[in-house]
Amino acid sequence: MTNILGISAFYHDSAACLVRDGYIVAAAQEERFTRRKGDDAFPELAARFCLDEGGIAAHQLDAVAFYDKPVLHLDRLLESWLYTAPRGWRAFLKSGPLWAKSKLDLDGAIRRGLGAYDGKLLWCEHHESHAASAFYPSPFQRAALLTVDGVGEWATASMGRADGSTLELTHELRFPDSLGLLYSAFTYHAGFRVNSGEYKLMGLAPYGEPRFARAIYEHLIDLRDDGSFHMRQDCFDFVAGLRMTNERFSEHFGGAPRAPESPLAQREMDLARSVQDVTEEIVKRMARTAVRDADSRSLCMAGGVALNAVANGKLLREGIVDRLWVQPAAGDAGGALGAALLAWHRWFEQPREADDQHDSMRGALLGPKFGAEQVAQQLRAEGAVMHELGREGVIARSAGWLADGRIIAWFDGPMEFGPRALGARSILADARNPGMQSRLNRSIKFREGFRPFAPVVLAERAAEYFEIVGDSPYMLQVAPVREERRLAMPADATWGIDRLNMPRSDLPAITHLDYSARLQTVTADRTPGLRAVLEAFDARTSCPVLVNTSFNVRGEPIVCTPSDAYKCLMRTNIDALAIPPYFVIRAEQPDADSSRWQTPLPLD
Asked: Greatest CA span in the chain, whole angstroms?
């Protein structure tokens, strides 16, 4: 029996994953335990959870695999600072000591973090960790590989091929040419936070027109047919300075960056649409090259850009690939999983047999789970008033409340690994309600009103509502709402944010401005609890679709424990918490209106 712990840390979204004989035992992000969003510290708590789940101590590990090579990372930083001297020294003086503090003694930091671990340490290259996280859990025996993110050590994108247990990266794009950093530059310029606001930019894009796309091609990038490109650095400041963009960028794109939290203008919407269109074109070109060179129509993807579900959906609908599998924890957290699997298959030279119909992620439900007694103990400690209804009773009550237009927090089974709530830590609502998107954004999530919500749908009924190719179990494909379900816009309707509250289909709460939706298809083998709620809701309403959004509020990680869930319930206007076998009604709580729950929310 071979136990390997994968670790990602010290950049953002630290995580740990335990793999035993090729089987993914557990995986979790550190932020879920510390409650610090995007926590980049050594994942001490996540690693402890994984080891506990596997029933072993750190000294029993056969190896620890880290997701990148810090020496190569340092090489890139030093070369970048020296190349841009003397201007680059300002960045060096600020970030150099911070980098050195966390990474120069990375060997020691890992060993100390695991309680004086003295076993084998393996170092994986960043994009190989991404590629391994995408291919090894996939249902494909053979596939093309494509990884795209901001930057690893030097690589910003890579492509290659994999067959059985063998994985090979054959091409790479190198820093500072980076699609992830290009997208982050527009995220920054639109006034959102880099490394967390990119999904906001994607959600904002349908409100805009691509009027800046031509300027991107003319002033920022030289794009080639194979998807590679050169970024002209005179408009950017991320190599030598401390900002993503500079004054020359502002000249080409309508002015200075938007001040964070200030009102959004049409310019920001047009910036979002423009870079989204360019991103989709680049991803499509890269994918065509990857499948051609690998001689495979199956494609595996990872890296932060692989979370761009709009681009993913177009790869399938436009026939660029026949089959697509994206790692649900596609960002750096997934690197921990990839490093562990890469060590198993490469270092320990173990074979791999894929299941053509099923991946090995188990619905990405790889985190902590809580039995009924643990749930009751934590809820009682919070002073909760709760109804014990049994599992079937909670499902039935939840479906009834949802059908009546109420909002339910659903907490069931192991926590999800990755950024998406997939039915274990979710907020659910009726997608047919035309006021639900506004209500969820305003009084539940406390965030920008333009933000769209995703639908969950019974897998076998998805084609009745969406123009989907294949399935989308991890909410990583955007598909159009079917034509017959759409509602025509008034002829005099203005473009942009003013159209936010106009119903666009018979499922208005999940239909975006361009008639699209980022959907999750639900099967009983992956998420049985959510499946049961959907079936019960369908039985009452003849509608197999619900809104599914993550169980958290702005600026905070998805909830992990029953205690976290209760606190989130009380800080919002969610109507009830369904946490089988218990049902907690917010209005019945003894201090529901107490100022205890009216605490300021952190910025997102």
From this structure: 70
Whether 13 contacts 40, CB under 8 Å: yes
Strand ranges, E, within 77-211: 121-123, 142-148, 155-163, 166-174
pLDDT mean by block of 10 residues, the chain; 604 residues: 96 94 98 96 97 97 92 51 48 54 77 94 96 98 96 91 97 95 96 90 93 97 97 87 87 95 93 98 98 98 96 96 98 97 97 91 98 98 97 98 98 97 98 92 85 94 95 95 89 64 87 93 96 98 97 94 97 96 97 66 59
How far from 290 is each of 18, 153, 171, CA to CA, in Å?
Answer: 30, 21, 9
Beta bridge partners of 64: 5, 121
Contact 239, 84 (CB under 8 A): yes
Residue reference for tokens 């820093």 = 175
Q: Residues near 483 by Cβ (< 8 Å), separated by ≥ 6?
A: none
The crossing angle, in degrees rounded to 10, of helices 106-113 and 88-103 is 40
Amino acid at site 415:
M
Contacts of the segment 252-255: beta carbons below 8 A, 24+ positions apart? 252/212, 252/215, 252/219, 252/220, 253/189, 253/212, 253/215, 254/212
CA distances from 359 to 52, 128, 334, 354 (A): 24, 19, 15, 8
Q: End-to-end alpha-carbon separation of the chain, Å?
A: 42
Amino acid identity of residue 565, one-letter, is A
Distance CA 427, CA 409 (A): 4
d(CA 326, CA 105): 33
Secondary structure (DSSP) of 100-150? HHHHTTHHHHHHHHTTS--S-EEE--HHHHHHHHHHTTSS-SEEEEEEE-S
SS3 category, 458: strand
- Specify burial of residue 425 (Cβ count, 10 A radius: 0-12, 13-18, 19+): buried
Three-state DSSP class for 23?
strand
* Helix, strand, coil fractions of the chain, as percent rounded to 5: 40, 20, 40
> 75, 272, 315: which is closest to 174 by C-alpha?
75
Strand partners, 577: 409, 584
